[in-house]
Amino acid sequence: MDAIGFETHDHHSCIRDGLEAVAGYCATNRLQFTPVRRRALEILLQQHRAMGAYEILDQLREDGLGSQPPVAYRALDFLISHGFAHKIERVNGFIACTHPGHDHTPVFLICRECDAVAETHAEPSRGMLGKAASETGFTIEQAVVEVLGLCPNCAPVAP
Amino acid sequence: MDAIGFETHDHHSCIRDGLEAVAGYCATNRLQFTPVRRRALEILLQQHRAMGAYEILDQLREDGLGSQPPVAYRALDFLISHGFAHKIERVNGFIACTHPGHDHTPVFLICRECDAVAETHAEPSRGMLGKAASETGFTIEQAVVEVLGLCPNCAPVAP
DNA sequence: TTGATAGTTGTTACTTTATAACATATCAAC
DNA sequence: GTTGATATGTTATAAAGTAACAACTATCAA
């Protein structure tokens, strides 16, 4: 499995690669990867945990990149609408997507101790989700799966 | 599949049965099914759709059962913590549980047109969710699945 | 039946999260 | 360079949720 978030990894390249991937995608798709948007993504990439919009705004403010809520929310809207970030509804927070560019149904594993979030994927059209939907005649457009629990670092050691 | 919400059904018995089931559970478990809690559940049962806390509060107020936000939130907390209702994070709303008493991982099918919500179930320990979790060493405690789309009543007619 | 205790409700005040609306600036293509 | 679309700055406010404390009610043991 390819979830990132709980294992130690080269976090510097993780940030750099994330920014580069999005920059590339924006370039080829004529999207404006402006300073506010870039910085907002960078802030999210620095942590594999859900951050509040106002927390992000605080950091943007320090960089002189906007000081009012709409600035942060607009940057986040941009990132989310193009699949570069996700909202974690459960905690009203946001995280950078670890698989930008791919169309996917994210599954978030949220640690209730340390707030770390790992992202992995599901295939909603298969399995019981798709089955349940087709039996009721429901048309799936978007699915979110949020799992709360303990990450390996916070789980009690095995007996 | 046993999702309720999209098909037409005997809604009166649906409300009555829901109230009775919860009343029974509370009686045997020494929980206080007070007027506010009972009425809050009844309000939720009247609609198979997510309702906002303030919307519920408005109705409670009309009945003289509390007029300040904490009253509604406390009733909802009670209902949720005992599995009689669920929060739909996606829309900051609440619905009555259609399967009270059973321990379960709910899956919500949310219609973006009419706000109807159908509840069905998943078995997180099986399938990819459990696989993903065990591979990362994550301990699942609670999972929520929210699916956005169109219910059969709102979907465009088949060609 | 009284009194202790835990649980519930009423209320005030406040925090956190999010958005509407409009003015100004910048970009991108002709 | 003008124009139309897109992005930002800003004010003000809406919507969602909670902390804290006082007052009331149920429960149960002595």
Automatic annotation (TrEMBL), chains A, B:
Fe cation binds at residue 103. Binds 1 Mn(2+) or Fe(2+) ion per subunit. It comes from the Bacteria. Gene3D superfamilies: 3.30.1490.190, Winged helix-like DNA-binding domain superfamily/Winged helix DNA-binding domain. Coiled coil: none annotated. Zn(2+) binds at residues 111, 114, 151, 154. One of its GO terms (molecular function) is DNA-binding transcription factor activity. Its cofactor is Mn(2+); Fe(2+); Zn(2+). Keywords: DNA-binding, Iron, Metal-binding, Repressor, Transcription, Transcription regulation, Zinc. GO terms for cellular component: cytosol. The keyword Transcription regulation applies. GO terms for biological process: negative regulation of DNA-templated transcription; regulation of secondary metabolite biosynthetic process. Signal peptide: none annotated. PANTHER family: ZINC UPTAKE REGULATION PROTEIN (PTHR33202:SF6). Belongs to the Fur family. This is Zinc uptake regulation protein. It comes from Roseovarius aestuarii. The gene is zur_1.
